[in-house]
Amino acid sequence: MTRSRALVQGVALGIAFLGSAGTGPVPGGGPGGRAADGAPAGARPTPSVFDEHPGGVAAAPRSDPALRARFLAEYQGVPADRRRTVLAAYVPTLGVAGILDALEAKYPTCHDHAHELGKAAYAATYDLPGVLQACSTRCVSGCMHGVLMEAFAEQPQTLRARVATLCDDPAMRRIHKRGDCVHGVGHGVAYVSGYDMKRALALCEAVGERAYQFYCASGAYMQFFMTFEAKVAARSDHYPCDEAPRFAAACYRYEVFFIAARLGRQGKGLPAVIAECLALPTRVQPACFHGLGHASVGMVMQSPARIREVCEQGPEAAQWLCIQGVVEKLAELDQPLALRVCAELQDRRADVCREAARNKLYATRKAGLEHYFVGY
Question: Three-state SS string across 277-301, please?
Fold first, then answer.
């Protein structure tokens, strides 16, 4: 198996993006566009808006197969709101790694399942370095995100200080790049803030450099959309992005999927999504187009020339952020393919694209960076 294919198989929650003919979301996903659990072996999932950093294929399981099977039977046999109880019961016997073996074998992607595992494992041990090491980057870092959610719930009076220093902790740096870490911090601060996004974004300020504040905000909004997926899907506005005081691009990175799904149900496709982005105030159009790019990774992977259809629209800054939305993530999956996409573009757009292919995710210096910080 090639590295690029392995990375793709490690990525998705399976959200179907804008259709192969540009007429709407691809059908076939589960609720919110997620792939059904237990997809066929060898299937190549579409990169998901809910997976910020693709993970590699896990090593062969070394845990007891009979115990894994017993765990999965119990785990699948209870409602979602009782799964944490099952996870907590098996942490002492199967261990974090063994539970991850089971989850990775059963589910095409296990990011949200691993959130609950991370919470349960930290609550059982209070051993932050040990649990982070056990989680590693598995389930697209979902286990790590869960650990931070649970850890941040402790001692709220020291939360801001911990947010400021966590990503410089040697135990964390051994496993995660700073950008991955601050994105995970964003998940944690949204959770402990009770999804009060203004409070969560204020806590993100503690991570330091403004670019990292944005990546923290991206984790916070990702956590928001994962938690309130059904409620957001039922709305016809741009909530919560239309209330974002800053970092609107961190919100539209996920919101655009819901916009595309809503328009798709009306029989409309890519042109209608573009029109909706262009109807926004000029200062936030780049944020919306960034989300459009991020939501179009799967489509552009299949047909690189469609980068022009998606991203050669609107003001110059909107085109740049759209290209970055596609290519930074695509480069994590397959950098040579990302560069082939760039060959479809010309002039300054091609330069921005090649920079994004080099940078991949979580760059702190890039074209148009100031537009990521804009809000309503």
Answer: HHCCCHHHHHHHHHHHHHHCHHHHH
Q: At what angle do helices 316-333 and 347-359 cross, to 10 degrees?
A: 40
In a domain, 121, yes or no: no
Residue 313 lies in a domain: yes
Would 15 be classed as within a structural domain? no
The parent domain of residue 344 ranges over: 237-376
Q: Quote the CA–CA distance of 149 and 208 in Å, as a whole number.
A: 20
Assess if residue 309 is contained within a domain.
Answer: yes
Q: By three-state DSSP, how is residue 353 classified? A: helix
- State the pLDDT at residue 157: 83
Return the SS3 of 70: helix
Nearest by Cα to 49 from 13, 25, 22, 21: 13
Please report the pLDDT score of residue 51 as a whole number: 56
What would the pLDDT profile of 305-351 be if each residue is shown by its tens digit?
999 999 999 999 999 999 999 999 999 999 999 999 999 999 999 99
320 Cβ partners below 8 Å, 6+ apart? 286, 349, 352, 367, 368, 371
